[in-house]
């Protein structure tokens, strides 16, 4: 009898890999809408151009590997990778920067290891880190949010992507950048002098984080993933930032609310950390995995060279996930725990 040769991840019933990826794309829509409102159409152009590239690179890799192109393109995994990377990248990135990031994610991080289910590192975060290390100037060129500067239109976004030499955009440091570089002003003064800080954690950023939180809550409701990793990550960030918050001096690392609602915190917690392929598998392992990511995010934000640390923290813990699983796996059915064995 011939056995079916089907690669992981395995799913039974209505919640197939294709269905899971569709749910993730739908859950990301509120955050994308908020980013588009506050920063213009750049994020949408990132996602659309990146999706076209991702499908092309995916088809090329499948053809070179002798796999069924139509079958594997239908699982939406390439579109999810392109969407996550497009959200993480600054709006109004040039076409070649997006192409390098997508190629790194699809070819290097995914198919080099055997495709979906075999990749040890999150593809979108690999693409992001490759770009951040290789092109730091382009990857930190965020535009001013609505309410601080003029938001570019759709034509500006298309020109910035496909005719970057002709686009003259105005960039501005993010709230995490400003806080990290501050060494003289109290937090209260910093908020008064910089309108980009908004009410809690950055004009536009706080609402984008709340939108991704809403999308993540919907994914939890749909049981796409468990609560363990994202909640552990957020609690870890909140606890550390509360412990080390000094009330707002010039050396302050920021309040818990600032860290929870700035940068890519909620996006990372619910759309990156929850990747079923590269995260820990056991429930206890997911708690440890998420908590350590939160700890690394806070440490890198406050003491490292990069203001937002989601990608680095996730990739480091992707490497450690098998080690965590080894020591947190529950006993198999019919066997006692190691401490009870004689």
From TrEMBL:
Family matches, as InterPro entries: NqrB/RnfD, RnfD_bac
Reported cofactor(s): FMN
A GO-annotated cellular component: plasma membrane
FMN phosphoryl threonine found at: 174
Mode of membrane association: Multi-pass membrane protein
Entries under HAMAP family matching the protein: RsxD_RnfD (MF_00462)
NCBIfam families linked to this entry: PRK00816.1 (NF002011), rnfD (TIGR01946)
Subunit and partners: The complex is composed of six subunits: RnfA, RnfB, RnfC, RnfD, RnfE and RnfG.
Protein name, entry field: Ion-translocating oxidoreductase complex subunit D
Protein source organism: Sediminihaliea albiluteola
């Amino acid at each position: 009898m011939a056995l079916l040769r089907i690669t992981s991840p395995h799913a039974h019933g209505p919640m197939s890999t294709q269905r899971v990826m569709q749910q993730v794309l739908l859950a990301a829509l509120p955050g994308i809408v908020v980013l588009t409102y506050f920063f213009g159409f750049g994020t949408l152009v990132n996602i659309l151009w990146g999706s076209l590239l991702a499908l092309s690179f995916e088809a090329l890799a499948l053809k070179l590997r002798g796999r069924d192109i139509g079958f594997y393109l239908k699982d939406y995994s390439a579109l999810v990778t392109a969407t996550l990377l497009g959200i993480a990248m600054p709006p109004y990135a040039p076409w070649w920067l997006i192409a390098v990031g997508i190629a790194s994610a699809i070819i290097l991080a995914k198919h080099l290891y055997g495709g979906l289910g075999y990749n040890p590192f999150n593809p979108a975060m690999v693409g992001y880190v490759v770009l951040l290390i290789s092109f730091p100037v382009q990857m930190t060129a965020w535009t001013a949010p609505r309410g601080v500067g003029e938001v570019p239109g759709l034509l500006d976004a298309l020109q910035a992507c496909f005719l970057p030499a002709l686009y003259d955009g105005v960039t501005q440091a993010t709230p995490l950048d400003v806080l990290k570089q501050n060494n003289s002003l109290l937090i209260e003064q910093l908020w008064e002098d910089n309108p980009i800080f908004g009410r809690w954690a950055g004009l536009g950023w706080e609402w984008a984080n709340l939108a991704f939180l809403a999308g993540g809550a919907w994914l939890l409701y749909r049981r796409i993933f468990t609560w363990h990793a994202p909640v552990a990550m957020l609690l870890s960030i909140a606890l550390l930032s509360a412990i080390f918050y000094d009330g707002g001096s010039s050396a302050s690392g920021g309040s818990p609310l600032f860290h929870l609602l700035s940068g890519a915190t909620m996006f990372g917690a619910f759309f990156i950390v929850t990747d079923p392929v590269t995260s820990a598998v056991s429930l206890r392992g997911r708690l440890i995995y998420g908590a350590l990511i939160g700890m690394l995010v806070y440490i890198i934000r406050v003491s490292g060279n990069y203001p937002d640390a989601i990608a680095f923290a996730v990739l480091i813990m992707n490497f450690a996930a098998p080690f965590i699983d080894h020591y947190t796996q529950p006993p198999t059915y019919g066997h006692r725990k190691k401490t009870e064995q004689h």
